[in-house]
Predict the 3D structure of the following.
Amino acid sequence: MTRTALFCLFTLGLVACATPVKSPTPTPQTAGEPAMPKPAKGPAEGSVEALAGSVPVDLTPVPFEIARANFVRETAARYAIAPATIEATLAKANFLDSVVALMSRPAERVKTWAEYRPNFITATRIEGGRAFMATHRDELQRVQARTGVPAEIIVSIIGVETSYGGFTGKTRVLDALYTLAFRYPRSGNPERAAYEYKREQFFRDELAQLFALGREENLDIANLTGSYAGAMGLGQFMPSSYREFAVDGNGDGRRDLFTSYDDVFSSIANYFLKKGGVRGGWVRGGPVVARAQLQPGFTEFNPETWTPDYTLADLAQRGYRPLEAVAPDATATLVSLEGSEGKQYWLGFQNYYAITRYNNSKMYAMAVYQLSQAIAGKEIPPA
């Protein structure tokens, strides 16, 4: 689920799937409490960061029959899968109007932090997280000791993404990816044509990687279910992220992100460690955020990305000073949030950046962090 943000105003970044062994105990979901974050545009699944690359001059969609035939030939060559096997599986796939409709929804007004946070930090989700962590304490502590990623962060991700396994999606993944790979909705707006082309290519690649995943993990990909955009399992991994970041946490020779908690916890931690690419991932024992204050007379600073590239001296020159103890050699990014009592300013460190690799949104990262702190019994500030 790592590449840099060419289209960073679309909040996404996902992950993938596995095979059932025994179903996780569902956690009841509060009415109005979404299982996954709702980004500004498009689904939470399917990283727009993955869309960098060349775009053909002619963006007229290729006829379906030709596109499908090309897909079979290229996927067979790329992953050494017999074309007949691909054809047989695609014959079971269905185009879903519901997926097209969901993907075509007009962008909502971008919510403020005060409006966004209550979707994720609720009494139900906090208590559910504490119960989930108590149930799986041993597995989580093993992963935390091995990777340095705190147990409460792993639990918070699962809580935000799927309400602790209570809602992992009911759409057949093959149908979702088949639909978006070959019938990605086109708006007819020339200014969006390149974006829509890249989105379709992204989902076409995810469909191809689903075939590779099925072969590698011995999965029946025609029966996997997940979100309407193809994300699967307790941590909502896309096929490409499943293949790249999932690990066998319990040593049974399989990577099961649906029902093996050892695998799920280890894979989420591994994602945090490795998704940062050359920038790096989670730092053991490192801070996530610290409150800051903008001094009078200075103009607000809004970085375009969440990479923690600014020294404390850099930020001081821009008028920001931390309101709590921070290591003098720390580097951070600046996070501005519209809270219920006015503007909030935060320094976001390397571990904050690591959370944004799961979903490229400053509010998503802050919600995950604050939920993790509440689950751990720590006090969190008001929205």
In short: The CA atoms of residues 289 and 348 lie 5 Å apart. Residues 48-279 form a domain with the Helicase, Ruva Protein; domain 3 fold (CATH 1.10.8.350).
